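Data availability (excerpt). All sequences and predicted token strings are deposited with the supplementary files. A representative entry, F5/8 type C domain-containing protein, is shown inline so that the format can be inspected without opening the archive.
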Amino acid sequence: MADLMEFTAPKLLGPRKGTERMYAVASQQALLRRGPGREHMGTGFLRFGMRFLAIPEGGWLRLCPQSIRPPLASPSAAGLEVDQENLWVEAAEPTIRPVLEDQHRFSPGDKVEVIVGEPGPRLGEWLPCQIQSLGDWPGTYHIFVENHERNNIPMWYFRTPGDDDWA
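Structure token line:
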């Protein structure tokens, strides 16, 4: 499984600065812009499931030069080469979520919160849930939320109660 996770991980094109964080597109797609702010021209999209490295600046994320792999959910999709530091994406939940990687490993029985990433009136709302088991794909979990079982929810949809992982 580690090989599969490594296959979808972005690769930096240059030295690490130490301030990069990994993020994921957790719902729909995210518009890339030539600068921070909605007045800047859109230049492309990050697709659902893509993981990428960026530096948070205000309510925006500046993408680092990197090779972004195709998402696991769409292996036939193209990846993306970022060879400059002027591509930005809005840091807006639930579309973009920080990837916690090894910071949080959940176990069956853990009580966490899950963000609603599906379009509708509850989009972006955090709901209490319980981890039931590991999912069928790397980095996913089966959960129980609001009297329903949900399967294969990606790890970037979770936070521990009260966490603000954007800080």
